[in-house]
Amino acid sequence: MGNQIILREPGLENELIDTQALHSLALLKIQQQQWDEAYFLLKQALSSGSEPPELYNSLGYVCLSKKQFQEAEEAFERALTLNPHSVEALNNLGNVKEAQGNLSLAMVCYQQAIQLESHYVPAYLNLANGYLVQNSIQQAIQILQQGQKINSTSVEISTQLGTVYQLNGQLEQAQHCFEHVLVLNPHYIKAYNNLGNVFQELGHWKEAASLYQQALAIDNSQPELHNNLGSVWQHLKQFESAIQCYQSAIDLKPDYSEAYYNLGNCFQEQGEIAFAIQNYSLALQCDPNFAKAYNNLGSSLLYQGFAHKALENFKKARSLENKNPLFWSNFLFCLLYCENITYEEIIQEHVDWYQHMKASYQKRYTTYQNIPDPNLRLKIAYIMRYLSSSNDPFFIKTILKFAHKDKFEVHIFAAMNPHDSLF
């Protein structure tokens, strides 16, 4: 959801032919992203003495692309001086302010552009982006709803509104938005992809697969579509189809770290650990800051008995996302398998974890006053995701075996069928 910058062709009336020709050639260079050539042509056009505001708007865009923010700002302000009602120049001036780190002034520009022309789509998109940067999701939704009401046929506004709804967990509303987009444009691949992602979150896997397939029938050169379809097949345990999709994504985009990561997960799920390790490593070659890939590589290495190498990867994952409890848990668990690490060091790492994470957990849980009484047993509760005889509950069985029942009262909470042979 990047900023929307608008370039308008120069008008033909009352302009010198040379200026028109230079501007047209500059616009061609802009489309080719040949910024220096475009800049030279625009400056040459301005040297003729003619000052159409569209020329300054184009110059500002080129300067913004070259990160020459001061000159870009001056160009857009000159365009507004020549034409105070230019919503394009006002919107683009907001882009400069935002690029300079002044989001508040940028949002003022976007709001003024909307006031000048209520049907001007780019300003709605940019203003909503600003609210998202400020973590004001509801305000982003409100401005996009306003834009959608005025511009009911705008594919861009409905797409962004659906994306924000999805970000906010409002999946049904997101679904309606993307379905509306497909009514407006049945060939809009992004809407198929976004709607497929929503159906994945809703657990409607076959519907998601159908949407990705429809999009690929329109254009099979999009690596993200192959990757997303692969994730559906993997969830449905159709591993061969999933692997083919991930490989197609990688063929189209050789540095696609997410596809390598998913391919690694697919192999890991099938117990093919060597191939999993290979693909996690390739994912990290593409993206050295991919925390989840370090974590899963660590899990695969630990499974093969390489505890110290696994620990290095868990530690790296934790350093990249130090608020992720899973990365901390895997790191602490791996310590138990590493030689030359003392019990004191293991205890200290657990203390460090507690100190690091306690603030976020204290906000979520109520604390209680505990009055020590040597005549009462200490109650200890374990919360487990899985607990059944089929999941080899080695650790909890060990705790139950060695716990001093005269000192401790152990409680276990788990999502399980109570009629299990474990108890």
Structural description of this entry:
There is one protein chain. Helix 21 links the parallel strand 1 (378-384) and strand 2. The two termini are 53 Å apart. This protein is elongated. A two-stranded parallel sheet has the order 1-2. It is mainly alpha-helical and 423 residues long. It has helices spanning 17-31, 35-46, 53-65, 69-82, 87-99, 103-116, 121-133, 137-150, 155-167, 171-184, 189-202, 205-218, 223-235, 239-252, 257-269, 273-286, 291-303, 307-320, 325-335, 343-362, 394-402, and strands at 378-384, 408-414. Helix 2 packs antiparallel against helix 3 (53-65), helix 9 (155-167) packs antiparallel against helix 10 (171-184) and helix 9 packs parallel to helix 11 (189-202). The chain has 21 helices and two strands.
In short:
The protein is mainly α. It is built from 21 helices and 2 strands.
Characteristics of this structure?
mainly alpha, 21 helices, two-stranded parallel ribbon, 423 residues
